[in-house]
Amino acid sequence: MTLTFFSNFLIHHQTPFCEAMVKRIGDGFRFVATEPVPQERLDMGYRDLEDAPYAVNAYMDDASYREAMRLGEESDVVIIGSAPDEFILKRMEQNKLTFRYHERFFKKFRWRFDPRALRQRYLQDTRYRKKNLYMLCASAYTAPDCRYIHAYPNKTYKWGYFPEVTRQPYERLAALKSRDDDVRILWVSRFIPLKHPEEVIDLCRKLKADGRRFVIEMLGVGELRERYERIAEEERLGDHITFSGPFDPEEVLDRMRRSDIFIFTSDKNEGWGAVMNESMSSACAPVACREIGSVPYLIEHGKNGLIYDKHSKNSLYANVSALIDDPALRTVIQKNAYDTVNDVWNADAATERLLHLIDCIQKGTETGYTFGPCSRD
User: Fold this and answer.
1) What is the pLDDT of residue 173?
2) Residue 81 in domain
3) Same structural domain for residues 37 and 158?
């Protein structure tokens, strides 16, 4: 089998899936990057992985572009994410098996979108509804958007991002967690509006006012960081909140492994949020907004995480407080979060399931998956 994955650029969140695919089909796998890694990402500690042995960098020169076009036409299977459709136009004419890989289409209200956006969705999706084209949903909100535009009828499958999972046993991670000292809470993101760092500051105020024992680390860079550092200083929150970063991905994972609770405060503009996978794999107890694309797929409320409602004033506070006040609950959720990612939502499992899904599509049979990657959505 030959399978080619097209996307804008290759970063560490994609490499575990790529490497798992290479293990299974060898040189039959290629990743086509259509643009270099943006400087903003490099400044955040991301590495440029254009020299990966399976990478084809279509933006580099004419020969690489021609090879990318050939792979788009001739590969047995293509997955296309954030990449121009020019790479798959011929295979659509030939009705070859293809998967789109997409976050939610409409991050604002559906009834307010630009008509040009609807036309784009028609050209990329709806007009191919009868073709051999399927959707790998990189958000729990992708499938509803597909139904809204009458695309991918009965052809939407749960997918996502599959960053590196921890290779450490749960018992070793559990030993790094708090017992009698302050509960360690971690937030990892860019300081930009859609990430809502102000919710973390508000949470800190409330927890401090209640006299709870905790420390919050806000890890990241961005345009709003200085503002919230200043607010924390002015309100004398320094004993309970620190600001750090940027760090490289391994240093971020080390922070996660030493944290008890991971809070994820983004709104509906967060497509997936790979830090969700990483924190759960590191045995953090996650508290996350239900609007984030990964949350309905990864978290079962009360079992392996807690889901809060951004539109309820005290929802984040109430859920974090519950975990601070109940160490037994926190421990159960940490273990279940670890199992969820390390057993099911990881690159190895997703690759095995995708290859099975491809086989089932070609044979006209069902996969039998009822949850996790490649189950129907």
Assistant:
1) 96
2) yes
3) yes
